[in-house]
Amino acid sequence: MKVLIVFYSMYGHIYRMAEAVAEGVRSVDGAEAVLRRVPETLSAEILASMGATEAQKQFAHIPVCTVDELGAADAVIFGTPTRFGNMAGQMRQFLDATGRLWVSGALVGKAGSVFTSSNTQHGGQESTILSFHINLLHQGMVIVGLPYSFQGQSTMDEITGGSPYGASTIAGPTGARTPSDNELAGARYQGRHVAEIARKLTRN
Ligand SMILES: Cc1cc2nc3c(=O)[nH]c(=O)nc-3n(C[C@H](O)[C@H](O)[C@H](O)COP(=O)(O)O)c2cc1C
What we know:
Radius of gyration: 16 Å
Binding site for NAD(+): 11
Bound molecules: flavin mononucleotide
Strand content: 15-25%
Distance between the termini: 13 Å
Keywords: Flavoprotein, FMN, NAD, NADP, Nucleotide-binding, Oxidoreductase
EC number: 1.6.5.2
Binding site for FMN: 9-14, 82-84, 138
Binding site for substrate: 102
Number of strands: 7
């Protein structure tokens, strides 16, 4: 059973979370985690002006996802930073290339799940995940979130990402904060949870 983790990251937070999601997937017997990134759509000049050039080198070795790989996966977990409370345009562009999967119903009945990051605590993590879910529903996917059985999302001991909609991390106003242990635990939990549900959905 193949669980595809397809992400966009500009500064590395979503990449780090994607690695943790993959760990969670791999903790399920028979589940293979495949990490892919979506194509970059901004020019090198714009990326340099945004201070992304060095950061993106950390995950340049991850292969770029193809639409066929998306269609062939047993479950898909999407990771995107928030952009004004929505998914990043790079992810949007990738989704807009999947029309033929919609036509053929390739994703119907497969588990789909979303995780995110933002600079500020209330900067749109929930709206990013929930508006992403609309796309999954149009593709006929079965939406999987991050249940409250992941107790780390209820903690009052620290400022943390994570909601019933999906794992998340807060990068901080300058983007210098890295995903906390609790946020990474949420990402691992989500990966494991999706893989467990996908295993049930794919059982004959
Ligand atoms: C154009 C743009 C819009 C953004 N919009 C938001 C926003 O609405 N709320 C917020 O908290 N952070 C916002 N951010 C910050 C990003 O979400 C943050 O850089 C990202 O989550 C870090 O993830 P990454 O390291 O994987 O790129 C924005 C960043 C950019 C470049």
